[in-house]
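Sanity check. The docking grid for alpha-D-galactopyranose depends on where the pocket ends up, so I'm generating a full predicted complex first rather than guessing from homology. Inputs follow.
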Amino acid sequence: MLLQALVWFGIGLAPTASAAGVLAPTPPMGWNDWAHYQCRIDSHVILDNARALVKSGLAARGYDTVTIDDCWMRKQRDSHGNLQTNRHKFPQGMHAVANSIHALGLKFGIYEDAGYATCGGFAGSGVPNGGGAPHFLEDARLFASWGVDYLKLDGCNVYAAKGESALAAYRAAYRAESEALKQVGRPIVFSESAPAYFQGQPQWYDVLSWVRGYGQLWREGSDIEIFDPRRPHRSRWASVMWNYEYNLQLGRFQKPGNWNDSDFIIGGDRGLTLAETRSQLALWSMMSAPLILSSNLNRLSAASIRILGNRAVLAVDQDPLGQMATLLRRSPAQDVLMKPLRGGRYAVAVLNRSTAPLQVLLRPRTLGFSSGTCRFASVDLWTGARRSGAQDLAARIGAHDTQIWTIQPSAACGVPARMGVITRILPNVAHNDRTAEAYTRCLAAPGAVDKCTDSAAQRWRVLPSGALRSGGQCLAQVGHRARLGACVTSALQRWRYTLPGNLINRSTHECLTGRASGALTVQTCGHNIASQVWSVPASMRDRRAAQ
Ligand code: GLA
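Predicted complex below; grid placement will be based on this.
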């Protein structure tokens, strides 16, 4: 735990770099049928989309893996226990589909499940219902024999034996798949859905802490809204905002080779405007999220293809540092995000969540640069417009749109401070109220958790010592209270940040606790108690460059 805390406070230790041999050193990209087609798939749908991926030029931009989701097989295994491809949908079998996809220069992904049945009720790889031997190894061998490059292992219907917890059953299943994949002699990127089955529960953070040992990416939460042909015009924007919201707070779990997956890019499909498509791509890229398109690629407009194929934005997503954006500022209308890129550059984005246009002006100080003579060269990634010697970033942002820039600061700017908002979540928001406002609270000085309003009291700096500073004062434990006071060298003002998200006082080893009522206290640390789990700004240092 101490080691992890040092890593997260950026003191001395480097995260695992994308050394040769690391699978998925940058977030996976590709296409998956699910959010557009659900079970309405066959070899034509898959191969038409694979060809469109190439023809549109999107494959050449990095979207290189075509994954077949649920409903590709039969409900039962054959008499020898083998999975059976649905031959009505895939008459030539799956090996042939894989060959066709490989022949297009693409990689091939497939869907299975860690339980006894997939979410659609087809044969799963996991322990049979009621107990028995799982099929992880033989299924993995089958996939390898087809030339599978990527496996999405869902987590419906995981059987837990009597006395076994769901947590233990999931862990055993995902560990078994990870072991099986190591034995099949083919590198297969492993996408784990386990955390999504614990969203909203304290065990969520336990699962998020172990999936990284088994696979390369993991779905942590609810599905992005699927296309419903009966309601083709229905907006899917709220769902994009929700997946962004829950994903944004989990940056501490990811690193090159280990990615949070906020689910499919539905931008370009029905239900999102072009502005919303820009937002989804920019926000996912700021989060270093996997970019897995899930739409009918043959029906993408030229404008959508331009957005989804924007090289500069994709380079932000694929930046080798792989860092989640830090939320610098948040008000009901807007989020300001920043993330470090390799080579001392930074990506900055502003989301306009509202339905009215927004004028923004970001000065160096807002971005954490200290010097008055700081200037930067900036590129507007949507228009390609360049400015040099600038002292601000300015834009007018339309409703639901996101502006995104990269900046190269001058030497006078220094390294940006580690700063931004400190948030906690209210995990059990009602299904119809999955919004940033309902879900997230901001730590406010002198001692409260409030709705996020971008007030000065909600702006924090995390000092290398572990002190949390707001308005020039530091947060200290005083009895069971947290109070702001003059910054001094006292362990009572230093907080250790752990992987699950606790802020633990260095002196008392108690946890900063932000109650849903708004009260801020310091209490005995519990196990993943929602009021004690925080999302804290990340360091803007390129730790690899510093080595
Ligand atoms: C779950 C997953 C989806 C999709 C379906 C298939 O809901 O989260 O992405 O794979 O199952 O049944």
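Relevant for the grid: The longest strand covers residues 402-409.
Also worth noting: DSSP finds 13 helices and 28 strands in the chain.
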